[in-house]
From TrEMBL:
It comes from Luteitalea pratensis. It comes from the Bacteria. This is Uncharacterized protein.
Length: 179
């Protein structure tokens, strides 16, 4: 049957919709063209800022460490320096050190304008191997030119006795350019 349709060329088709009993005939040929609008793709407004973390390894199958990175350690796409962050992603890959034997992780991502410590109110996201990206828990404007730093509590596990876990990683901030 498909070959018969292809061989006969364009044919009228029944319009499909909510009111199927009301059937209209649609013909799309040179005598009755269906108008089509071409819409330009929106300009890219998403910016990704990437920061590489240091590493932690305590010589056991589970390791926990604090990995800090200053605002100036991030590189943003498109030359942006300030973004309104909507999502954060953490990956134990591509950090300043090689992560080894990591099958599970948890990263608590915090940010402070001061250079020391962190408080529960500074938390932006808690990320795990099952959910490595998340929406930020509070509005957050990141400025790579301003003072401040990310302090991340990172825990990783090899899950196997005798295979020592070493964890590093990369934080990605995703958002729109700040206006």
């Amino acid at each position: 049957m498909a070959a018969g349709l292809l061989a006969t060329g364009p044919l009228p088709a029944l319009a499909q919709g909510v009111l199927k009993p009301v059937q209209a005939v649609i013909v799309n040929d040179t005598a009755n063209p269906v108008p089509v609008s071409v819409v330009a793709a929106p300009s890219p407004t998403t910016v990704v800022c990437t920061g590489k973390l240091g590493g932690s390894g305590l010589g056991g199958p589970i390791t926990t460490g604090i990995a800090a990175i200053n605002n100036s350690g991030f590189v943003c796409s498109g030359g942006a320096t300030s973004i309104d962050v909507s999502r954060i992603i953490y990956t134990p890959d591509l950090g300043n050190f090689v992560s080894e034997h990591i099958i599970a992780f948890r990263a608590t991502v915090t940010h402070r304008n001061e250079e020391s410590g962190f408080e529960p109110g500074d938390i932006l996201a808690v990320l795990t191997d099952g959910a490595p990206d998340a929406t930020v828990v509070r509005p957050f404007r990141f400025d790579s030119m301003a003072s401040g730093r990310f302090v991340n509590v990172v825990t990783g596990s090899s899950g196997i006795q005798g295979f020592n876990a070493v964890i590093s990683g990369t934080i990605l901030l995703i958002g729109a350019p700040a206006q």
